[in-house]
Specification:
The structure is a single chain. About 30% of the residues lie in helices and about 20% in strands. The protein has about 550 residues and is an alpha/beta fold. The protein has two domains: about 270 residues, Nitrilase/N-carbamoyl-D-aminoacid amidohydrolase, CATH 3.60.110.10; about 200 residues, Alpha-Beta Barrel (TIM Barrel), CATH 3.20.20.190. The strands form four sheets. An eight-stranded parallel β-barrel has the order 15-16-18-19-20-21-22-23, surrounded by six helices. It has a six-stranded mixed sheet with strand order 5-4-3-2-1-12, covered by helices on one side.
């Protein structure tokens, strides 16, 4: 199998962009009948940096001649042609690698999975699909299985491990990576080929004579051997890779039988020690759109409040957020319970602050709710984080001790736990001013939400003082005026609380961003109806 990789000159200015696009078209037109696979670099129809709002208009004007040349090359050469470009997909533009079969028909599209913020905010590319579970795209043509990485994708090892599972033959990498060192480009291409047991075919852009970054179009075989490479220089790199289904086997251990790299890794995989990743992980607090529903103390109409079953039910139903309270035991453990006294929710009595964790764990926290929950125990913050790491956003209500100054060491311990379970971006603190002041000083990296107490009518000014991202309104101060004042400061508004679906929609109409509820399913269905009619907010 003979592959042809096109490496055009990088246009440092918009005035040079037309020539770069034409260069790609000309190289496509030059390809001969001996070529079996052709690949172009990233953004072949919009190959440079554009001011905000100008990328898509440029791409629109240059798409048709590029795609026509790609399709014609596929037919003329009887080859597979993969071209990366800004593509109009149902009215939204996406960073797309389109694969043409030798007859000119479309075999499939790959949408870049990892988009840096500027690609969405400046270029205007759609990234909404990246928040949904998607197995890696595989396009099969004439028995050859193609996978894809586009530029930023190349840095995400979790995704590359998923590619390895797809039993690919060739991974097509359309890229820029203009400022990346050559040794890094070599290393990522080699390791991707090695771990996925597939050929890597990489197309990039010529950064010009003297540049020691970028460029580096190359072909790497499944053993990690670079077969051909073009550091800089404009043109096409042609390489005969032989059998595209060639695989590499390595010893499982010294003197052991040869196995594939994929099998080598799978035999030793221990996912419980890895960073939480994959389809269970939800977008962070900053990324998740509004309006949202927050399961107050979990889905506590069907399971005991502030319990793992209540949180699990909410998470299983797709809750954007869960809310729970944390109090401190006599031995400094972080206990998930709303009241300072255990009497209301357990079969015991006494203050949390006067009991050790061992004593607390003897209490039955389910029997008062229902005999079906007999034997349920109060949980700790760490137990919640261990079971639901990054699976939802946590509205963490830090309870103020009566007549005592809150110990900042507790905040630091909470911060360390959040860091341990990789949840710093999925949690925000809800608290009164005494704790917000400490949080701003000791844990400024964790988002804050201002409590309505004390003085609910002046909540916005307090939120500004403590640099809060959110306020938590109660019914008496949940007015359109206060909501508008918060929004003017860039502050989101929670409502505590609403269990009536009709009333929930009215609060959304007023501008509320997140509704806390005890009756998660009914209220969440109402909010979904509201979103269907009104759309999501930023």
């Amino acid at each position: 199998m003979k592959v042809c990789i096109i490496q055009p000159p990088y246009p440092y200015t918009i005035n040079e962009a037309d020539a770069a696009v034409q260069f790609i078209i000309d190289e496509l037109n030059k390809c001969g009948e001996d070529i079996d696979l052709i690949l172009t670099p990233e953004y072949s129809n919009a190959p440079t940096v554009y001011p905000k709002g100008e990328c898509i208009p440029y791409a629109k004007a240059h798409t048709e001649p590029l795609i026509s040349a790609a399709r014609a090359a596929a037919v003329r050469c009887n080859a597979v042609v993969a071209v990366n470009y800004a593509a109009d997909i149902d009215g939204k533009y996406r960073n797309t690698t389109r694969v043409f079969r030798p007859d000119g028909s479309v075999a499939g599209d790959y949408y870049k999975q990892h988009l840096p913020p500027s690609e969405v905010l400046v270029k205007g590319m759609d990234g909404s699909y990246t928040y949904e579970y998607r197995t890696p795209t595989v396009v099969e043509v004439d028995g050859i299985r193609y996978g894809f990485l586009t530029c930023y994708d190349c840095y995400f090892n979790e995704y590359i491990q998923h590619l390895a599972k797809m039993k690919l033959d060739i991974i097509l990498v359309s890229s820029h990576q203009r400022s990346e060192r050559w040794d890094i480009l070599d290393a990522t291409s080699i390791t991707t080929a090695f771990y996925c047991n597939a050929f890597v075919v990489r197309s990039s852009v010529d950064m010009g004579a003297g540049a020691d970054t970028g460029g580096s179009s190359m072909v790497v075989d499944p053993s990690g051997k670079i077969l051909a490479k073009l550091r800089q220089g404009s043109g096409s790199l042609v390489c005969d890779i032989g059998d595209p289904k060639k695989k590499y086997a390595r010893p499982y251990c010294f003197g052991g039988a040869n196995i594939s790299n994929v099998e080598f890794v799978e035999r030793g995989r221990v996912p419980w020690v890895y960073r939480p990743a994959g389809s269970a992980v939800k977008p962070s607090d900053e990324q998740t759109p509004y309006p949202r529903v927050c399961a107050h103390r979990g889905f506590n109409t069907i399971a005991p409040e502030n319990s793992l079953p209540a949180f699990g039910a909410a998470v299983a139903l797709g809750a954007d957020e869960i809310e729970f309270d944390v109090n401190v035991s006599a031995d400094g453990e972080l206990i998930v319970i709303h009241d300072k006294n255990v009497g209301r929710v357990t079969d015991g009595s006494g203050l949390i602050s006067g009991m050790t964790l061992a004593e607390i764990k003897q209490l039955d926290a389910g029997i008062k709710y229902s005999p079906h929950f007999r034997g349920l125990r109060l949980c700790t913050l760490e137990e919640v984080l261990r079971v639901f790491p990054r699976q939802t956003i946590i509205n963490l209500h830090i309870k103020s001790p009566k007549n005592e100054v809150y110990d900042p060491a507790v905040l630091l311990r909470i911060r360390d736990l959040l860091d341990k379970y990789d949840c710093l971006e999925h949690v925000y603190f809800m608290a009164k001013p005494d704790i917000l002041e400490l949080a701003l000083e000791y844990t400024p990296e964790i988002a804050r939400c201002c409590s309505s107490k004390p003085d609910p009518m002046n909540i916005v000014s307090r939120a500004v003082k403590y640099k809060c991202r959110k306020v938590q309104l109660i019914h008496e101060n949940c007015t359109e005026e206060i909501i508008a004042a918060a929004h003017d400061e860039g502050i989101k508004c929670n409502l505590f609380w609403c269990d009536d679906p009709v009333e929930a929609k009215k609060y959304l109409d007023m501008g509320v961003d997140t509704i806390l509820t005890n009756d998660y399913l009914r209220v969440s269905l109402a909010v979904k109806e509201w979103i269907a009619e009104n759309g999501v907010k930023n």
